[in-house]
Amino acid sequence: MPILGLGTWRSEPGEVAQAVRAAIEIGYRHIDCAWIYGNEPEIGQTINALIKDGIVTREELWITSKLWNDCHAPEDVRGAIEISLRQLQLDYLDLYLVHWPVCVRKGVYVPKKMSDYREVHVPAEKTWQAMESLQSEGLTRHIGVSNFSKTKLLDLLPKAKIRPEINQIESHPYLQQTDLFDFCQEQNIGITAYAPLGSRGRPDRLKEADEPILLEDPTILQIAESLGVLPAQVLISWAIHRNCSVIPKSTNPGRLKQNFGAASLSLSAADMEAIAKLDLHRRYINGETWTLNGSPYTLNSIWDEN
Length: 306
Ligand code: A2P
Description:
The chain has helices at residues 16-26, 40-52, 74-88, 124-136, 150-156, 178-186, 218-227, 231-241, 253-261, 269-276, 299-303, and strands at residues 6-7, 30-32, 62-67, 93-98, 140-146, 166-170, 190-194, 245-246. By secondary structure, the protein is α/β, with parallel strands linked by helices. Adenosine-2'-5'-diphosphate binds next to α9. The site of adenosine-2'-5'-diphosphate has 19 residues, from α9.
C-alpha cells in the first residue's frame, strides 16, 4: 500500500475530478474513497480516463473504498461493493473497509431519528464473514476495518478467518492513539491515519468554536520553520515516521504537491519527541453523529475508552 494517499472525504463532485487527476500526475498512487462520500462516480471516470490515456495503469493504483453503515447485514455486503466497483469503474478494489462499527437501517445515510437505527445491531463478525467472501471472490484484494477500537478488534480477531489487514482511524499529534497503534503493530494490522491535518474542512456542525487548530500548533510551526517546510508537511511526515499510511485530503493542486513532498521529509528524534508531547486525546471526528436522537450507541460504546 503506498504510504501516502489522497483523502477524498468532502472533495465535492465538480472538484474531485481535477483533484484526482492532478494528484495522479503529481505521483499519488493511493486514493482513499468511500461510497458515502458521494463522489465515487466522478473519481471512477477520472481514473478510467487516466488509465485509457496511458498515464497510469490499474496495477499501479491502490484504491480503497468502504462499506456504509446501512449495509452491515451479510446479505447487503456484496451489493454494496458492487455499487462502489461500478461507480469507480473497477473490476476489483485494493482494499475494502467496514467504515464504522455502527449500523443504521438500509437506505439511511446519517441517522436523524430513532427508527433510522437498526433494531438489532449486526455483530461485527457477521459482516466480517461477508467481507471475507468478497476477498475470496476477488472483488477486493484486501479487507479491513475503520474506526475500530482495540476492544472491538480483540473481539473480532478470534472469529475472523481472514484477519483485518488495516484499521483506518483518526490520528494526528492531538490524537496519537498510542495504545491502539501498539496493539495493531503487535497484531500485524496496518494503520491508516485519517484527518492527519486536523480536518478543518469537516462540516461546521462537527466543529467546536474554541477547538485547538492543529495546523497552527506552535510546536508544529516551530519544527516546520526550523526545517524550512510547511506545517502540513510536518504533520504528514510525522505519520509516515510512525509507519502508518496517511491520507491528507486536498483538492488544491498546490497543496496536493506540498503534501506529496512530505514523503521525502526527515524528522529528527528530537522533533518526534516534541510532537509526542502534544497528545490531547482529542478527536475532531468524535462519533457524535451516531449518538444523537435516542441512538442505541454511546460514545463509550463506539470508542470503548472508559
Ligand atoms: P483543501 O482541500 O482546500 O486543500 P484532513 O486531511 O486532516 O481532513 O485535512 C483536510 C483539510 O486541510 C482540507 O480543508 C484541506 O483544504 C486542508 N489542507 C490540505 N492540505 C493542506 C496544506 N498543505 N496546508 C493547509 N491546509 C491543507
